[in-house]
Structure formats: C-alpha cells, structure tokens
Amino acid sequence: MPDHVEAAARSTVPTFEIADRRAIVQLNRPRHHNRLEPYDLATLQEIFDRIDANPSVRVLLLTGTGKSFSSGFHLGALADRLAGKDEGIDDRDSFERTVDRLEALRIPTVAALNGSVYGGATDLALACDFRIGVEGMRLLMPAARLGIVYYASGIRRYVTRLGVAAAKKLFLTAAPIDAGELLRIGYLDEIVAPDHLMARAEALAAALAANAPLALAGLKRAINETAAGGLDLEALAAVRALCSASEDHAEGVRAWSEKRLPVFTGR
Prior knowledge:
Blueprint: H1 3-10, E1 15-19, E2 22-27, H2 38-52, E3 59-64, E4 68-70, H3 75-82, H4 94-103, E5 109-113, E6 116-118, H5 120-126, E7 130-134, E8 138-140, H6 143-146, H7 152-162, H8 164-173, E9 177-178, H9 179-185, E10 190-192, H10 197-209, H11 213-227, H12 233-244, H13 247-257
Parallel strand pairs: 2-3, 3-5, 4-6, 5-7, 6-8, 7-10
Antiparallel strand pairs: 1-2, 8-9
C-alpha cells in the first residue's frame, strides 16, 4: 500500500493510552499534518476529563504522528462555520475551551513536538507545562495574515509565558520562527534530534511522575494562577495544609533523611 494511502487509512481522532502512570495522547492525522477537526476537539476534551478523573495518572505526554506536530485548526472547517455550514458540530469557543482544559489539568504536561507547529496548535503546545522540540522544526502563527484576533486566554498564555516582545513578534509579523529562536524566547525547553524525542520526553515524564502528586497539583495551579494575575490565596492555604498533613509529606521527609527515593501514593 502506498505511504499516503496507508497514512490516510490511519488518520483518526486523537488516540489515548495509559502506561506506567503516564497518559499518552497522540494527534493522528499525519496526511494532513495533524490538523484539528471539530470532532478532534470534542475527543480531546473528553480525554482530558478522563485523565483528571483517574488518580493513577501522574503525567501527560502530548505528541503527534508524521512530520508535523499539528497544522492547527482545519481552515476548511473554519470556513464552513463562517458560512453557517457546520451543522452544529463546532462552536466559536470550542478551540479555546479545549486548550484551556489542557492547561487546567491537575497533572504536569509535556508536549513532545515531533515537527513544526502552526496556528492554534502553537497555543495547544504552549498550554503544556514543558515543550521539547526537534531539530529543524519551526512555528508559524498566521492570525494577522488570516484577519483573526486571537482569543483572550491564548493571548494571555503568549504574553505571560513568552513576554510582550516575543508575543508581538509571533502574532504581528506572522513570520516563521525556527527552533533556535523558539528555544531562545522560551517556547521550547529543549531541542533534540528527532530519533531522541520520545526517549527524552519519557525521561522527563518519569521524573515528574516520581514527585508527590498532591504537591505537584498544588504547585502547578498556584504558578498558573500567579501568571494569570489571579492567585487564589485561600485555595493555596488549603492545599498547603492538605499537603503538610499528607502521607506523602511524611514519606518525603523519611526518604530524605534515609537518603533513598520516596514512594508516593497521592495520599
């Protein structure tokens, strides 16, 4: 079977599996550079809900198939929506809700960017806590070229995570940015060779999963709220008290004094 026919046959909504306390979510439309269809957004929201409801999951890995991480939201579906032909499949805020849901996950998230990233997919990756990219990848945010003003939470992520100057460069010029510049501005945490990507992402995921789940969730939420300018001090005090009284805190102190690795249970 020719490669393009085989790729088309494999193209589906995002796939999801759990292994070794890790949830692995894979964008799965390689023939179309993993563009995100309306049904993909609904699938991703359902996956994120399932992950948050599963206490055995300690970390999420998000990646893609083929040569690109994702080309963003399907512009054909966008055109259909503007023409009133979406038949109720999509709505104006579905992409923003999907990305916000990813950012709000209680567990740490790692984007393993297997190739270039475009449009709304740039924000999908930015909503993850860590991003590892591959040599030769690039980013393109074409909102200004398409006559689009981006949604509020996406602009907030760009500005708070990358800074005003970088956000203006990416949004206002609509010019492609290479991997080296993405590392310099903080969009990428690391750049690796393509054949090392998943090994490095899984190593980072394992390191994150080895830490205390309650503390990770509390720290992540507090950092994100601080970045957004809305730290909930009462919620922070409550989670600090919860963690201080937890079995995991006692185990962490014992392991530190005994010079061994802790074994956390999330209690």
